[in-house]
């Protein structure tokens, strides 16, 4: 079994849901994804129910880039829980594009990869907006406020920041049962004030406030009352920020590093209050 090309990316959490006000932002999490192109089928079958990998290859070829000369097979290894709002599709798209670039021995800018990832996600129907902000967070550290209505990579990023030091914070992810259906874009519009507050927080350099404000907007749009209760419970037990990521159902909770007591309290409380959910510990990408 030979590796023709390989690429990597990471998961992320939302700072601004792009459906709210037409601007989106995400921040990378240490949830790695690795994609390889192999000359023989992988030992583990690749599950791709939405056809995202085919859309990635089509976007790559439609942009005029060379596809591998020989027949290949996709292999994906992901630490991102799927369909939770943790940007697994954006991460797979970026890692897949990087694997194609590696196989073709060509250099492609991150901005160009992000555009191709957006094209692929829209074609596969896994994103309402193209998830360009998610793809940036999956590809590079820091956050970028993205204008989803822009027509070019040069115009899309309107603001950016360095993000948060991974040594200063611990991140907890409380997963949840997969949503039967995601809310339409129209469900977010009446709650634009929450997303505007999140944007203002980023303008002031306060991404943790943005994460919380965005989560409140998503709760209102999705009517996820349990999600609101579980996120609010994090603050009672020492969390500095908490909110639903993407359209959910996962909740991201941020706690200062070096203090074990809040982490242990949250483990116990969520085990009692949400026994059907998994609690994952990680950190931001630096």
Structure described in brief:
With about 290 residues, the chain is of the alpha+beta class.
Give a verbal description of the structure.
The protein has 286 residues and is an alpha+beta fold. It has 2 domains: 3-161, 2-Layer Sandwich (Ribosomal Protein S5, domain 2); 169-282, GHMP kinase, C-terminal domain (Alpha-Beta Plaits). Helices cover 40% and strands 23% of the residues. It contains 10 helices and 9 strands. Strands 1, 2, 3, 4 and 5 form a 5-stranded antiparallel β-sheet that branches. A hairpin with a 6-residue loop joins strand 7 (241-244) and strand 8 (251-256). Helix 2 packs across helix 4 (110-124), helix 3 (88-104) packs across helix 5 and helix 7 runs antiparallel to helix 8 (207-222). The relative contact order is 0.18.
What is the first-to-last residue Cα distance? Answer: 33 Å
How many helical stretches? 10
Overall helicity: 25-40%
What is the CATH architecture assignment of the largest domain?
2-Layer Sandwich
The parts where pLDDT drops under 50 for at least 5 residues are: none
Topology pattern, helix = H, strand = E: EHEHEHHHEHEEHHHEEHE
Query: What's the overall average pLDDT, rounded?
Result: 95
Q: Which CATH top level class of the largest domain fits?
A: Alpha Beta
What is the CATH topology descriptor of the largest domain? Ribosomal Protein S5, domain 2
**Backbone CA Rg:** 18 Å
Strand pairing plus helix content: what structural class? Answer: alpha+beta
| Overall domain count | 2
Write down the overall geometry. Answer: globular
Main beta-sheet annotation? 5 strands, antiparallel
Number of strands: 9
Strand content: 15-25%
């Amino acid at each position: 079994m030979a590796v023709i090309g390989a690429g990597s990316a990471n998961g992320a959490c939302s700072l601004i849901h792009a459906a709210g006000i037409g601007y989106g932002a995400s921040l990378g999490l240490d949830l790695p994804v690795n994609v390889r192109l192999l000359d023989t089928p992988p030992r583990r079958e690749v599950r791709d129910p939405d056809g995202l990998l085919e859309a990635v290859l089509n976007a790559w070829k439609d942009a005029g880039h060379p596809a591998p000369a020989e027949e290949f097979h996709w292999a994906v290894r992901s630490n991102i829980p799927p369909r939770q709002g943790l940007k697994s599709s954006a991460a797979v798209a970026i890692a897949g594009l990087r694997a194609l670039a590696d196989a073709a021995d060509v250099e492609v800018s991150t901005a160009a990869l992000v555009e191709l990832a957006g094209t692929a996600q829209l074609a596969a129907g896994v994103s309402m907006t193209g998830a360009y902000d998610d793809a940036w967070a999956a590809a590079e550290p820091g956050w970028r406020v993205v204008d989803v209505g822009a027509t070019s990579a040069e115009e899309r990023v309107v603001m950016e920041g360095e993000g948060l030091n991974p040594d200063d914070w611990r991140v907890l992810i409380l997963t949840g049962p997969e949503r039967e259906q995601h809310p339409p874009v129209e469900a977010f519009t009446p709650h634009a004030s929450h997303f505007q507050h999140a944007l203002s927080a980023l303008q002031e350099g306060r991404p943790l406030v943005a994460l919380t404000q965005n989560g409140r907007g998503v709760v209102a749009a999705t009517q996820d009352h349990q999600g609101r209760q579980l996120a609010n419970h994090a603050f009672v037990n020492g969390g500095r920020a908490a909110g639903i990521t993407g359209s959910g159902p996962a909740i991201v909770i941020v706690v200062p590093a070096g203090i074990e007591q809040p982490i242990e309290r949250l483990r116990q409380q969520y085990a009692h209050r949400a026994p059907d959910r998994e609690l994952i510990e990680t950190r931001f990408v630096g």
